[in-house]
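Methods — Computational structure assignment.
A single polypeptide chain was analysed. Its primary sequence is given first, followed by the predicted tertiary structure written as structure tokens.
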Amino acid sequence: MRFLLYMNISCAIIDDEPLAAGLLKSYADKTPFLELKGVFNSAVAAIRELRQQPVDLLFLDIQMPELSGMEFAKILPSSTKIIFTTAFSQYAIEGYKVNALDYLLKPISYDDFIKAANKALEWLLDQKGNSDSHHTDDNRFIFVKSEYKLLRIDFDDILFIEGLKDYVRFHLSDGHRLMSLMSMKAIDDNLPHPEFMRTHRSYIVHMTKVTVVDRLRIIFGDNYIPISENYKDDVMAFIESHALK
């Protein structure tokens, strides 16, 4: 199974059938890029929660008492994308009229679930890419202060970045290293993702430069970059998404 892990997607499940809701929850829990924010047994029960804390993606049953999934979809913010889940195929055309990303027919397999989730991920990545103008081809560099100078560093020249207390050290593809006074968070916030990924609290790696992964280490020559437990799922899912099966 391939995962296209480039960002996390917040999601919720609305289904009045406990078994169906439980199955979808188990699928969401084992999908690395999904962050499940809630499971609701009716659209009415979800209204207040989702107004206060909107999600990126909603797995929404159609036939429910009080307020159907189709009716609920019409009052959701346009930023919330929908994957309908239902036992009745006749709703498919109507589902696409409310801009549903996909339509899953029960019983739902994990293979169908992950394909639909990946479709949502690709859509959200496209939207994010269209809005991320500061990382276009003409702006793939940053200026950092080092030894009283402002030095330009091209993204393509970075192998990895190492955090050293109040400093970061840039390890470049030509073998040079450059120190700058800044936090790991500051540099992480200004790099394009998932091209650059945090693998450890002290390391950010240029993932397109990775050529060797040995268990939970990324190897650049004599440098062994650890992949810590906190970042393992994201990093390994990214690598898995580019692996031949």
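Note: The helical segments are 18-29, 43-52, 69-73, 92-97, 110-131, 184-188, 229-241.
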